[in-house]
Amino acid sequence: MSSKLEQLQAMLAPVVESLGYQCWGIEFISQGRHSLLRVYIDREGGILVDDCEVVSRQVSAVLDVEDPISSEYTLEVSSPGMDRPLFTLEQFAQHAGEQVKIKLRSPFDGRRNFQGLLRGVEEQDVVVLVDDHEFLLPIDLIDKANIIPRFD
């Protein structure tokens, strides 16, 4: 995790949690002079647009005061949705048994993209079964991971 992302996580997670929501994760996508800060929130029973608005107002106020991002940026507050991104080992463990799509920062075993059954977590590795082959992917190498929604 980049130091900017760690700084934003440390600053914003307590704000989100003080409002009664779980800070599911934060993405900071730097795109030259204009960046995107996405804050995922969750809670039992789900998230409504009004919840996103409440959190957005509070997070925006904190960001205005602390000013951690020097360039222009867009703040987006969202529910993780059905194809929820996974950020932490705890989240990977919680969703064992689900189908996932994982993209790595750099190649592992000759590839960067993995899609298969999330088996769980072993120490600092995410265990994924792809075509009858089990991969232990180091959490530090994971750039992006999402649940593949089931519609049955």
From TrEMBL:
What superkingdom does the record give? Bacteria
One cellular component (GO) term of this entry: cytosol
Q: What range does the record give for the signal peptide? A: none
- State the SUPFAM superfamilies in the record: YhbC-like, C-terminal domain, YhbC-like, N-terminal domain
Entry protein name: Ribosome maturation factor RimP
Q: Which species is the source of this protein?
A: Aquipseudomonas alcaligenes (Pseudomonas alcaligenes)
Entry keyword set: Cytoplasm, Ribosome biogenesis
User: What's the family?
Assistant: Belongs to the RimP family.
Matching entries from InterPro entries are given as:
Ribosome_maturation_RimP, RimP_C, RimP_C_sf, RimP_N, RimP_N_sf
User: Its function?
Assistant: Required for maturation of 30S ribosomal subunits.
* Gene from which the chain derives: rimP
Q: Assign the protein's first listed, main location to one coarse class.
A: cytoplasm
User: Pfam families, from UniProt?
Assistant: DUF150_C (PF17384), RimP_N (PF02576)
List where in the cell it is found.
Cytoplasm
